[in-house]
């Protein structure tokens, strides 16, 4: 993968040279580093400066960028880089100062991870922050005073300390210069860590009587372009003879300090001796070459040489200190010793976790091995103290998978079901290997989004409804209900008619269903005698895409009401009414011999009822007869029989009226009229039958005459009233 370097916005005379050098550094990495992208930028770039075309270097085309959802995740507290929204180039998010981020560490590398989806992948990106010469060397003391005895032999050296330049490489402090003086020269020494120190060398014997003071200027220069420098003024006081200078027990003290040493603890002690006596043997200790920041961490007792910790030591900020200690006796003679302080790491930092959710909410149909989050774990400690392992609390359908040293992926381990668990509260704990180990935790709430994986389910697979006939149109028949375990539109159920025993069109003519409530209403009045039962199929369908549905059967039973009176089949209703005014044929009659005994079957009344059940149960009663005691009717059979033996005194013509009633509430009825002739034979009964028409005609004539008489009486009454009214009116007019 191509490594790109960005140096935009760096002003200075070396821009062209640097750019040419950077172009030579472009290289192609092998397949072993196929998932790492490296960039290099100078420090102090402004916000929005280009770091590199990240999307292009990852092999992502502009067309697939929206679907791949390129993002970056970093474990740093401060977000140094950002991605453009429309064109995902990696850009600087804010001012980057290499010295404040990395100090003297070189190279200064900021790491981050680029995450893409569909399919998921992680790319490791490292950005090297290059130093620019933005700091000039500085001395801890601008004025240095040195006491030199006039008897000091030539060749004696006096430490002048060292300048400080936070830049690195050629931009750091490279050399010292001293103003020319025949009595003194300058020697530059380099420590094992690369720090350069200046020492003043006495070239000739001093004469206090000729000159008591000497003034020099020490200049520290870096190797940047342009060169930056800093100065310190040196004052040399020539003193009278003092036989013996102080001597330290060691020229170099090496000290190892734990970083968690409490303030006030004794760190180390330096010791110097002087063979003189009196005040010339009294030694005063002081730091001669120490940075201000280091002076705040250590205190040197000027009498005892004990050095105590006065500030918080932090291995992660600085691992090594070098200080110079000066011992000066009462006569002004001095001695110098170096102290190398190594800070030992302890497990004083808990791991830090940063989360980047990839899928939240998670579709419940996500397949196992889908990455839902990326966890970046960092520990500022080193060695075993900085090695971290992660674990997830609880028995959840997820697992952690290590992607790199600091990156872990949260992956779906087993299928999800939103209907069972709609959200997961995941606690991830990072623990280092220190002694005792330190840990930290973070919580991630993952919601499971619904997919339409459940069809609506009816409370019953088959429903039964009972509707009394003659119902009003629009009457509620039944309410069906289906439930869908999905959420939102996927769980919103609508109801439709899906057919039935009479087909979809026939079912729609009988009932309708309300789409939202599932209520079935009758479309028209139902008639039990026409349709006793029917079935309809109701479909419940959700609002998902694609929609899911299920069907339930509703069987509707029409309940009978007593809305039909019994109908007499025999004797026929017209015949039973007798001969009409127009001279219709005589009604049927039954001939019963006069010798008939009790129980003789005269006739049987036949009736039917269109209703059902109790509404169709018929019973027969005798309501009228010429000789009530002569006949009886079977309660359930309708058979008309003689109740006793026929006697000689019984009239030859008998009229029997029977009522037929059902058992409905209220009961409905019909009547049947039967004419009976008592005779031994048909010839004997004929005279009786022939008399009936003449008598009938006489009765009809009498009725007609009675009608006309009543009409005439009414007309006469009306004329009388009219005459009285006219007479009254005439009298009123004359008045």
TrEMBL record:
Membrane topology listed for this record = Single-pass type I membrane protein
Question: Can you give the residue ranges of the Cadherin domain?
Answer: 33-139, 140-248, 249-353, 362-458, 459-568, 592-689
Subcellular location per the Swiss-Prot or TrEMBL entry: Cell membrane
PROSITE patterns associated with the record: CADHERIN_1 (PS00232), CADHERIN_2 (PS50268)
| Keyword set includes Kinase | no
GO molecular-function term, one example from the UniProt record: calcium ion binding
Per the record, its GO cellular-component terms are: plasma membrane
Return the InterPro entries for the record: Cadherin-like_dom (IPR002126), Cadherin-like_sf (IPR015919), Cadherin_CS (IPR020894), Cadherin_N (IPR013164), Protocadherin/Cadherin-CA (IPR050174)
Looking up SMART domains in the UniProt record yields:
CA
Q: Which domain of life does the UniProt lineage start with?
A: Eukaryota
Q: Which residues cross the membrane?
A: 707-730
Q: Which Pfam families match?
A: Cadherin, Cadherin_2
Q: PANTHER family per the record?
A: CADHERIN-87A, PROTOCADHERIN GAMMA-B3-RELATED
Protein name in the entry: PCDGD protein
Q: What is the lineage of its organism?
A: Eukaryota, Metazoa, Chordata, Craniata, Vertebrata
Per UniProt, what is the name of the gene that codes for the protein in this document? Pcdhgb1_1
